[in-house]
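DATA SHEET
Item: assembly model
Revision: 1
Owner: S.N.
Input lines:
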Amino acid sequence: MFKELIGNQSSRVKNVVERGAVKRFAEAIGDLYPIYFDEETGRKSKYQSNIAPPTFPMTFDYGDIAGLNLPNEGLIHGEQTFHYERPLRVGEEIICYSRVKNYFEKKGNFGEMGFLILESFGEDTESGLIFRSTSTVVISEAVRKVLAK
Amino acid sequence: MSTLTQLQVGESLKEIQLEPVSRMDLIKYSGASGDFNPIHTIDDEAKKAGLPGIIAHGMWTMGNLAKLFTAYYDEGFMKDYSIRFKGMVFLNDVITLKATLKEKQDRILSFTVQAVNQHGNEVLKGKVLYQQYEA
């Protein structure tokens, strides 16, 4: 039931790299370098602003993908990647969207496991791509049966 | 402060050992990330999901690991960061974060990274390609 969703893409959603959100996120991962929140450090850096930690895109809204309804429970995060053209700057606007990149099933220890690969993008209005990320979500046979009901 | 430029292939960045994982760590990460899956914060929900107790978000550990590189922000940035989650992280686990330089080509530094728990088991592993700016 996930196979037919391959290629489906969300609509584009505008996100802002919010100063307060970046600071809270940096605190939550114990990555409290001033480059993330101290304005003067940011101004004096080569970025001329504060930047966001590399995993900060987890906080963005990527819009809904038509037909994709994942439960909040029973999923396993198997893999995660980020690719950056440059770091995210605090205060900038980012256009985000995501799509179903792939889905396949493989026999594992707990039956036929499903592997859903979601690809997400962040772009700015001038230069295009800033980051691309992929999340591999592992969905067990048991969870898929519940979803199919 | 030392720079990444001085690091030789085969050498490692200074390891970071985290404080034992606390429930408050995971509550804070839930709030900061917006991932409110209750298996990370509520015992009963974790047990219902068949777990012995609450577990850390994989992204909490991956987020923590990135700080091995933060000090070098003026030298470059993480161009590629890829992780495979290998094992669960439970309350009170003590996680150590590591990165070793494997290859240097032009201005791309290729690191293997891992997080291990107090039993020496790998909880995540992966790769960082670090892009250095031109001097």
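QC remark: Chain A has three helices and five strands.
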